[in-house]
Amino acid sequence: MKALTVGLITTWNAKCGVSEYSRDLAASLRAAGCEVIVLASYPVRQVSWATDDPQVYRFFHTGWEKERGVDTDLALNAIRRHRVEVLHLQYQSFIYAPPFLEQLPRLAEAAPLVVTFHDPCIPREFPMACIRQSIVHNHVLAEVVRSVPVRIIPPGCHLRADRPSPAVRAGLGLAGDPVVTSFGLGRAAHELVLEAVGGLLDRYPHLTYAIAAPSERMPPVYAAARRLGLESHLAYMGDFLPPDRLFDLLDAGDVVVLYYPEFGSRGVSSAAARLAVAAHRPVVLTDVLLFEDLPAELKVPFGDLAALEERLHALLSSSKERARALGLQRQLVRENAWPAVALHHIDVYRAAA
């Protein structure tokens, strides 16, 4: 079967969940035989490491910026030059300003348009009529966008080999045993996790909480560590880590915690949680809307630190509890591995084309 040429419209190499998702999708599509070009936003909140990029054309400003210009002609020229057969927009409401939405029908005239809706905040001015097919991650969003053909495809999970924690830990220079890890773009309540860590020190005196988080988020975390006398039990591993180093962090730990408060709306799925689930370490999530499409057995109530402390102790001390959590996680990875997710996308592209 002939390979498709796909134009991904997205942020790219940015400190942004959509950018991370798009990178994984592009790599999986290329591995499946597709040609991929990226029609991206201008550089903003960029990561500092090199990546193996497809051809990238930057043509619009994001909603983060004061400037709102869109160079539609540049994008159209790239679409024609590469003979793009399907356009795929990764839509999240705060990224795409009204000037971009006004130009979307022109792009859709050049190639059939598929849209992945990553959240339910779809403005009235969104030109739904120009969409051939849509993709959402769960049934809640499917109801929101039911005016156009919709396919439910959950976020992909990485297929990764397990690596023993002590060896990876030594490579990172990370002291402590056991180690609890976390990461994210700033929502995680690391101060509360530190309180649970403090409650576990009588049983695990060398326990370390190792996190990757935006540097501007760290002052209150450091303040909590000083207040609780836990400075020596906190390891800050960096801001927005490149994928290989983030996997190193997760592999170095014994448990991964994404302790998020309620901040979103129904219908949003967490790609970060899928990344954590694939790390061969038991995961602790909170019972918030962001994680509502993930197994309840992996969750604790947000704000109930006794429940968090108890869950961490169970996963650190009981091989049975770890095996139970990992069994649920492996099933999720098997059902939503990136190679299979890429093939589901290709099915949608062919339906659109």
What does this structure look like?
The protein is an alpha/beta fold and 353 residues long. The chain folds into 2 domains: 5-156 and 338-352, Glycogen Phosphorylase B (Rossmann fold), CATH 3.40.50; 165-335, 3-Layer(aba) Sandwich (Rossmann fold), CATH 3.40.50.2000. It has helices at 17-31, 72-81, 98-110, 139-144, 165-172, 190-200, 218-228, 243-252, 271-277, 305-317, 319-335, 338-352, and strands at residues 5-10, 35-41, 55-60, 86-91, 113-117, 133-136, 150-152, 179-183, 208-212, 234-236, 255-258, 283-286, 299-300. Helix 2 packs parallel to helix 3 and helix 6 (190-200) runs parallel beside helix 7 (218-228). It is elongated, with a radius of gyration of 21 Å. 44% of the residues are buried. The model has no long low-confidence stretch (mean pLDDT 91).
